[in-house]
Amino acid sequence: MKNSFLLFAVPLLLGSALFNVPRATAALNVVTTLPDYAAIAREVGGDRVNVTSLAKPTEDSHFVDARPSFVVKLRAADVLIEGGAELEAGWLPPLLENARNPKIEVGRTGRVVASAGLRLLDVPAVLTRAQGDVHALGNPHFGVDPIIAKAIAAHIAQAFAAADPSNADFYATNERTFEAKINAKLQEWGAKLQPFRGQALAAYHDSWVYFAHRFGFVIDTFLEPKPGIPPSPSHLADVIAKIRHDHVRAILVEPFHNRKIAERVASATGIPVVDVAQYPGALPNTDSYVALIDALVDRLVTALRSS
Amino acid sequence: MWEVMFWPILACVLLPWFLVYLGLHVVRRGIIFVDIAMAQMAALGICVALLLHLDLEGWATFGIALGFTFVGAALFALTGKREREVPQEAVIGITYVVAAAIAVLLLSRAAEGDEEIKNMLVGNILLVTPAELGKAFGLFVGVGAIHAIFRRSFLLVSFDRKQAIESGLNVRWWDFLFYASFGIVVTSFVRIAGVLLVFSYLIVPAVCGINLAGSFGRRMLIGWIVSLVGGIGGLIISFWWDLPTGAAIVAVFGALLVLLTVWRAVQKRSAKETT
Q: Does A177 lie in the same domain as A234?
């Protein structure tokens, strides 16, 4: 009897210390699917919001493993920020079905769809099942374009103001500050990358089209033929030939990708592998959105200068 | 906790009894990996449906997956216990790797990646919906009823093959029925709970039961208690420590097996000392 009591009491005690259930404070409870939306939400909400991201920065955002706290957080959420371009389609809907929180239902002001109003790139011209419906709405990796980040911040400020009208001015001011910060930084980033404009890069996964579009790179060589499918030998041979033919200068790899494959291609072609990430926090010292883009720009400059 | 964990707990109460029963068969037959091979055959069926551009939630896809499961069942029934030199487990292993490899080959030709397949086939017990639970429970009751009606034949074929053959049973046919019903149950449970959990629910409670008791009924009762304690304990730990749910349940099962084995050994030793 005593033993069975311990069996339950110990996890209970440890659990209550480790597992922070969102407290019922005045602050808005904000849940985001991805860490980049969380970083922007923190800029806009400051200390008047509690922000948590479901996906970790180093996790593959196509596949996120649900944990009990996800459902708890979604139940307590005043605002949910999601991408809305099917990137989270595999794991968000069942979580929402279990959380059953009317505040964040589709169409409510508590539901922010980051891609709403954006013109996404790579929308398929013809939609058939044979073409695959995975990216029917366009490429969902739009967070690394700073100009799109400004638009997302504006969405978020609107949603915060609707959920918490007494602080509407505070959110609007923060949003303008973020916008000004990005505008100033865009000059700096553009100047740093200017010498490399028009150069070609390869990527493990097709998640850099917006970054390429913004800063003038060409990224149309991909190491994986399809998400989750390892490259075949002939695909790798094609990639190596394309890298040589297009004078590709570097290979972009994210934390959860198979770096060995990239290294293999790099050693065959003599170009560097650059460790990059889509999400703040995945690279050292990138806890804010601006710090992430800073790191991406610096890493690229270093790699392209030496190659 | 209750709001989040109600449906998972209900699933851990309503579903495992039939898996424990099947697990006793599986351990007795020595075909430990048959569940993974069966689940992989069903996955292969779904890959074929994907390549034919069928609606993945539709009946045609279900039918194809079922068909592949039956092919697996026929294969295992035909290869069962014929040649002693090649154990059944070898055939099961080969079926698994070949089915998995063909699935990879098919998917490399499909327009979608493996996201959809992964989502379809491998569930997370934390996110079980009432509809899924209802369907699976109905299925288990249906298949369970067939096993209850023909329990003599099913038990004889698994536990006493010699007598089954002598008494004139068509062993191959009953083997096929066993594997087919097994495939249906396992595939539907994988969709709710994932591969790790199916495997542990089949094997761990059965092994605990065999270690602690002699008769089929008592083994099943012990197995059922172990499955309840492990399942609900794992769910509670997963909630309090915020751990991935399926893996937490499997770890609790492992711990229960170790505890019971140690307890049994201590008990045996003290029994020896007193005599």
A: no
Q: How big is the CA angle at A102 (ends A100 and A106), to the nearest 5 degrees?
A: 95
The C-alpha R_g of chain B, in whole angstroms, comes to 19
Q: Establish if A222 belongs to a structural domain.
A: yes
pLDDT one-digit tens code per residue, B80-137: 765 567 888 899 999 999 998 998 888 777 766 556 666 666 678 998 989 889 999 9
Token digits of residue B136: 């699976």
Amino acid in position B136: A
For residues B188 and B136, the answer to whether their CB atoms sit within 8 Å is: yes
8 A C-beta contact, residue A173 and residue A179: no
Enumerate the residues of chain A whose CB falls inside 8 A of the CB of residue B236: 8, 11
Residue type, A248: V
Q: A244 and A120, same structural domain?
A: no
Summarize pLDDT for B210-230 with one digit per residue, the tens: 999 999 999 999 999 999 999
Using alpha carbons, select from A73, A76, A98 the residue that is nearest to residue A19. Answer: A73
In A, which residues are within 8 Å of B115 by CB distance? Answer: 62-63, 90, 134, 227-228
Same domain, A247 and A284: yes
Are A82 and A230 in a shared domain? no
Residues of B in contact with A75 (CB under 8 A): 3-4
Selecting from B3, B113, B245 the residue whose C-beta is nearest the C-beta of A229 gives B113
- Judge if A220 and A181 occupy the same domain: no
Put simply, the answer to whether A232 touches B108 (Cβ < 8 Å) is: yes
Q: Tokens in use for A150? A: 């400004």
**Which residues 179-208 in chain A show a CB within 8 A of chain B?**
none
A38 and A141 within one domain: yes
Asked if the Cβ–Cβ distance from B241 to A65 is below 8 Å, we say no
pTM: 0.81
Helix residue ranges, H only, chain A: 2-18, 35-45, 68-76, 92-99, 146-163, 168-193, 209-215, 233-245, 259-269, 289-306
- On whether residue A9 sits in a domain, the answer given is no
Q: How far is B211 from chain A (nearest CA, A)?
A: 22
Distance from CA of A177 to the nearest CA of B (A): 36
pLDDT at position B12 over 50: yes
Q: Is residue A3 part of a domain?
A: no
Look at residue A232 and tell me if it is in a domain: yes
How large is the ipTM? 0.74
Range of the domain at A173: 18-185
CB contact under 8 A, A229 and B116: no
For A229-233, what is the mean pLDDT? Answer: 80
